[in-house]
Amino acid sequence: MQTQLSPEYHDTPEGREAEAILRKCVHCGFCTATCPTYQLLGDELDGPRGRIYLIKQVLEGAEPTRKTQQHLDRCLTCRNCESTCPSGVQYGHLVDIGRQLVDAKVERPTGERLVRWALKEGLSSSLFAPAMKLGQAVRGLLPRRRRLAHARARPQGPDAHRLCAAQHEPQHQQRHRARTRCLRHSDRGGGAGRLLRRPEISPQ
Predict the structure, then answer these.
(1) Which of 105, 12, 107, 21 lies closest to 56, judged by CA?
(2) Which of 65, 71, 100, 183 is spaced 20 to 30 A from 166 at the CA atom?
(3) How many domains does the chain have?
């Protein structure tokens, strides 16, 4: 992808690295097939190729907006797109550069800045280990209630197996009838080499 860097980024390490990555992109769009955000939202700008175009525009002097920032933020940085790129574009590194350049020009809302700071500090500081221990301590309380409720609803005693089978008997009977119809159809003279489609069974 041909890129003309603006004077602002022409002699910067970020500009040179981004330009080298952009030159490998051939606009094929194979990356969109493995991008989870594009598959979910269906917006070209929420896929790798669209974000590459946004970063290219910023590097060429276009003024980024809040929308540009949001499209770059929606990238999960999973790098699935790199596994299907025939040109070996290092998209993960490019989107990191793009986010850095856009964040330098677009101010985030105060609430969003506080949330991002809390997440960053909580995951990268000494607060992470105590938070994990607290979560593990609380975890033992909630599932216990669910397990007890499930145990009460489940049949107990020597007849438990028979009672469970009786509860699921309609589903077993439906499967048995489907198999019986398939066998009867085969006995009607379908031929030794005839393939029979597996019967469809609706979930209960």
Answers:
(1) 21
(2) 183
(3) 1
